[in-house]
What we know:
By secondary structure, the chain is of the alpha+beta class. It is about 20% helix and about 40% strand.
Amino acid sequence: MQLDISERDGSGAGLGLVRADGSIDLFDLYTGDLSDQMFSYASNEELCTLDAVNHQFKALTTDPWKRITYERFGLKNGKDDWRLAVSFLREPVFIHHDSTPDHDGMYYPGSPHVTTHNSLIAVLTDDVTPGDDTEAPVGINLYDAENLSHIGTRESLGWRVTLAGPTGNELFVTNTDSVLLEYSRVGYDFVQREHFARNFQQYEIPVLGSETHVIFVARNTLHLKRLAISVEEQTFVTSCQSISLGSAHQNIDEWFYNSIAWGPNRSTEFVIYHSSAEMNEFSVWSLSAESDQVSRTQTIEVEDIDLNQVALADEYIIGTSHDKKIHVWDRTTGVKKPYVLCDVEEDDELDEDEITYSLRLWCRGYILITTSHIGCALCVYNIKTGQLLRRLNNADEEQRVDMLPDGVDVTSMAYVDTLNGFICAAGFLNIWTFPTNQSQKDRALSIRYREEELLRLMVSVLDSADDDSMSDVI
């Protein structure tokens, strides 16, 4: 599978691709560093056109692309997944969202929580109550994921919010402490509430939402709810299953800690980390939306580590721990990997008093993206090798945030599919986008330029007001 080149100038000479006989190995071309630049924004059709230069390679192109993409990134969808994976290795388009009134130097005071669902972004702040006379956003603030424009605000006194349901008719699931879940929808004047016995070990009820169901763990029990509106009964969800994760008989004072996360497809497979006095384990579950049933498919015992967040990849289970490390388990064998992941080597930078929240995790194949223990930064890891590929400190470098030990709380994070990016809430909103095509890049740059212009206008207005104040004094 070689391509003869008659004109050497500009054809790859000096790049290590052209052989002594003047031929090129197309596999080297497609898998080398040059490919990351040449094919970053090429469509599948354009790549196949290039393949046509060598008919033999074109006939074999599907399997080699799938094999190469899987070997390097653990992804199985050939060229599309290659384009996705290499985007995280390039420089992102960074956006600092600063187009709304601030509050004591922070856009979202307190401990904001961000989540996404389809084309909607929701940011909830727990530090300001509706009716306050501050200019800071209150309750749940909604954004369009296509262009990050502010849609509106919903009142809420909850600490965390999860979105479920179809686009345009989303269900809002908020929870306060570990005792109350509230379900609400735009256009309905009632709220459905569920009360639970307090879990003294955890200050929230971990919840997942899909197009059709809500899944959560309260104390010792996994609950599955189907989205079904009944105006007469004033309900938005109905119960399908309740499954005990441990002993069926529990004392009211017994403690539990739970974390829950979708697998890569975000609709059929999820993982639960459940810790109690009697057990400490992962369980992997499968959701059948048609039959309104969940079933356990795998259980892995966790020994000698207390975890606080979990993520599920195709081949691995990932957990962040109270010792401020990221641990990896092989899903096939259930064996923990000998290495741990961490973006900070200095122990004094991870002082216990500085750590407010656990890391947020997102993974595809061998790619793991997390927040950082020292503040508003993104870390990109190779799960298979345990290697930290890069840490993106754009928010700190552009003087948008202060990193620990001098800075603020650890960051909330959510994946924005429309921009192939990550939105982080740490006072202000900061977004790292990793375009996989030119259209996506143009949209991200347009949002960045818009925010920069709004910031310039805001600074101009403030400077003008200061000048007027000085004139009045004189």
